[in-house]
Amino acid sequence: MLGRVALNTSKTSSSLLSSIGASVKGDVNDLIGDVARKFNIHDFYSAHLLDYCEGYYIPSAVANATVEPHKYVTQCSNRTALFHFDPSSVIQKELKSGITLDDLHWPSAIKNAVRTVEIASKVMFVLYCIGVAATGLALLGAFLGVLSGGRLAALINNMLAFLAFMALGIASAIASAIMSKVVDEVNKHGTDVGVTAAKGKTFLGLTWTATVLMFVTAIAWIYEFVAHRRQQTSYVYEGKKGRY
Question: How many whole angstroms separate alpha carbon 196 and alpha carbon 58?
Answer without folding.
Answer: 18
